[in-house]
Design a protein that fits this description.
two-stranded antiparallel sheet, 16 helices
Length: 435
């Protein structure tokens, strides 16, 4: 049943690259087979509840610009109205998944028992919406960064009562995620970091954060949740120093606390940029360690120094990201969540649809380019040639020897290697043939 919010907007269909229509998919064809798998099953698109429906259009210098009938989000009537509009949009887009924080889907009550009651009520309502549609929950998570109680962190807070409130909140959210058939559960430590070391006990906070995450994993197994537990790296913002800075930092943390076989990573394009990396770098690092779980697709404004969460529009960047995802075997239980928001001046309902359609098309183009590169094999052939020396018996024996033996061999054989070209420009030209 139509809510009227998207009045006049029809479900989006594949219209082909030559269409002049404003809406419609030029490149995303859910049933197109890429590397033996439907495009929809490769990409597993999800809509972010927070940016699309909870965000009111504010920025650090100005307040609300998006006037929605479910704003302010302060009672269950509006929460259910928001859910009605959200599922109508999912159906218009043909998006198979969505994601939420608890604070996106229920009003903030302040008292935990009341927050839990409203979360359970909206969970039942969302369950009904899911049953009436083909939409599933990619992942749920807890917002433990917006309310003032979290200003000193959640699991890393110096106050044990805040740790307790956080633990109770995650339990409730994990229960809700499991009840809704969620494929994953994400923990993003929005304020798990510090502003100054003058008031911070690093070892205490990191140990508590490690213990907290172990509790989450233990509870997952206790209730039989089959989805993956994911953590999401992000540097600097909002804390000056985030403990979950980038993929490598998170992997080191997980290993320190014995979680490397239990927890994977949810990686975001914008967060990679804030950490001084490319998205493909973060994906490749996680994949190399067997910890690639899911992705948040967006982009930052390269002229701004903060997380602008814009929809993707750079095919070469996206293609290289999916190249490493495909090499790693795909996203499995993860997906492509649009952790992206329309601009605060884009106030029309159709802007919500157009932004997602454009992002889905960019990802489809990137996926097809990545698949074509893999099928062509040019990059893999170059890597095999460049590192061929390491497959020889001599190189393998060297790695099992010692410095003195290696020195003796260099002296005896007069080894004096000449540098070989890395061919970067030629490889960049190769990639450009596909994008």
């Amino acid at each position: 049943m139509s809510t009227g919010f998207f009045e006049g907007i029809e479900p989006q269909k594949f219209v082909g690259p030559d269409s002049k229509a404003e809406l419609g998919f030029r490149h995303y064809n859910p049933d197109e087979v890429v590397l033996g798998k439907r495009m929809e099953d490769h990409l597993r698109f999800a809509v972010a509840y927070w940016h699309s429906f909870a965000w009111e259009g504010g920025d650090p210098f100005g307040g609300q610009t998006l006037i929605r009938p479910w704003h302010p989000q302060d009672d269950m009537g509006r929460a259910k109205m928001k859910a009605d509009v959200a599922f109508e949009m999912f159906e218009i887009l043909g998006a198979p998944f969505y994601c939420w924080h608890d604070a996106d889907i229920r009003p903030e009550q302040g008292i935990y028992a009341e927050n839990l009651a409203t979360l359970e009520e909206i969970t039942d309502y969302l369950g009904e919406k899911q049953e009436a549609s083909n939409v599933e929950l990619l992942w749920g998570t807890a917002n433990m960064f917006s309310h003032r109680r979290w200003m000193g962190g959640a699991s890393t807070n110096p106050d044990p009562d805040v740790f307790a409130y956080a633990a109770a909140t995650v339990k409730g959210c994990l229960d809700a995620t499991m009840k809704l058939g969620g494929h994953n559960y994400v923990l993003w430590g929005g304020r798990e970091g510090y502003e100054t070391l003058l008031n911070t006990d690093l070892s205490c906070e990191l140990d508590n954060m490690g213990r907290f995450l172990n509790m989450v994993v233990d509870y997952k197994h206790k209730i039989g949740f089959k989805g993956a537990i994911l953590v999401e790296p992000k540097p600097q913002e909002p804390s000056k120093h985030q403990y979950d800075y980038d993929a490598a930092t998170c992997i080191g943390f997980l290993r320190k606390y014995g979680l490397e076989n239990e927890v994977k990573l949810n990686l975001e394009q914008g967060h990679a940029i804030l950490a001084g990396h490319s998205f493909e770098h973060e994906i490749a690092v996680a994949a190399a360690e067997g910890m690639l779980g899911s992705i948040d697709m967006n982009r930052n404004d390269y002229q701004s120094g903060w997380d602008t969460d814009q929809f993707p529009n750079n095919v070469p960047e996206v293609a290289l990201a999916y190249y490493h995802i495909l090499k790693a075997g795909g996203l499995n239980s993860g997906g492509t969540n649009f952790d992206a928001k329309i601009r605060r001046q884009s106030i029309d309902p159709v802007d919500l649809i157009a932004s997602h359609v454009g992002g889905m098309d960019i990802c489809a183009r990137g996926l097809k380019a990545a698949a074509a590169m893999l099928e062509d094999g040019g990059l893999e052939a170059f890597l095999a040639e460049r590192y061929a020396g390491w497959s020889t018996d001599g190189a393998k024996a060297m790695l099992n020897s010692d410095l003195a033996s290696i020195q003796a061999r260099v002296l005896a054989e007069g080894i004096n290697p000449e540098p070989r070209s890395g061919r970067q420009e030629r490889l960049e030209n190769y990639v450009n043939r596909f994008v």
